[in-house]
Amino acid sequence: MPHNDSVPVTRGYHDHSTVRSSTLRAGLLLPLIALLLTGCSQVVIGTPVAADGLVVGAAGQAPGLPRRPVDPDAGPALVRGGADTPDDRFAAAVVTGVEQFWRQEFPVRFGRRWPNISDFMAADPQDAATLPPCLRQSLDLTNQALYCPRLDSVVWDRTQLVPGLRAKYGDGAVVVALAHEMGHAVEDRLGIDENAQAREPGRYPTILLEGMADCFAGVTLHAVADGRIPGVGTDRPGIDRALQGLLSFRDPVGLSMGNVAHGNAFDRASAFINGYDSGAGTCAAMTTTRTTFTERPYTSPADQSRGGNLALPVLLASMGPDASAWFAKLAADHGHPVAVPRMLSSDRCAVAGTQDGEPARFCPATLTVSASREQLGGVYRRYGDYASATVLASRYALGALNSMERPVVGPDAGRGAVCLAGAYTGQLLNRSAGFELSPGDLDEAVDELLGEDLAARDATGHAAENDLGLDRVRLFRDGVMGGAARCGL
Questions:
Q1: pLDDT in tens, 7-22
Q2: Structure pTM?
Q3: 111 inside domain
């Protein structure tokens, strides 16, 4: 199912939730893609690092603006604009702290001192006097943050973006938004510039640059969570909310790869998690061969007309036999007797210690998967059809684990179920017939995994108490990209 609230944006943040009309979305698509190719917010592109991790090329010099001193002990960032509101002060603290982090991290990871970003600007899109010279109109900045490579400047909408993110997703979402744009400045300092692009045309399409910036934002938020950025912090739930804030800015579903800007939620989350887990070197090494770029167009007018959604009864009838067969084959391939779980609509299977309220459940005693259409319908309505399918797939995964004589109760069972649900989903990516994925299905799975722990519950209906939504998305992503082998099978 597609995420139906999205519009494509320039190289920055734009809150798609304010645009819900499909007519508006279609009307904005071509001009905004053109803006990607011509506006100041496009990051110039080229080669980042040599194989040994040392910097290739030089950081860009903003014409007409003096470079701030390359000084590891430099003081607070100089932010132009603003009205000294709490939101303005917080944004200034974020860019100061994040740049201080890169002053320390950049030499360690890339063997070169960090050239300070030339300019930070808190702007009001409705006040022409506060707009940087690289912007042509207020639309370019409204509810966005941007990096302008010609000016080496990070700019953000102080009137809507910062207060809106803080109110809806918390302080961590502001950190991620501004860290993403400063991630483009990191790219610039790695030598990703117009000269390098001329040497290697097509090496860095927009989707890859955005993925790298998401990855650098993940690096930054991990530093915040570890207490390594003074004046900025987050608790564990704040990590999930920050990631939800990032994923609220996504491309509309159904685009071909040639038209994507930021990527879908699955791709953005994957890049962010790579940086969060593995650090800046992983971000700089990203290439267009990275298989987590999963955006794809609709393959039929019928699928597009229904927004990629199957009605819930059709979903259950289509997915049940398919998932049963795939997970039974998985068990057989690992040398275990095939026990195919059957799907029932009313068997609620009483297991000792069972928690009520689950939309779907695997019953070891009867080898069945039961689904409550009322409760599963709630998942469907909140997130979309493949969110429901992900919960169901995780129950069939428990059936496969049971067949392979592995535990189906306990935190590891729930985690294994999520990963194997991802493995099942991954093999659907390249199907061209039968039960297959629609554009947006992966996003629906990510939204459900971030928002709820239903797919991570064991056979008694309990999930690990300390796991984050980010942990569940990571497990699912591992299964999608690496198959059952990444799930320990």
A1: 223 334 443 332 212 2
A2: 0.83
A3: yes
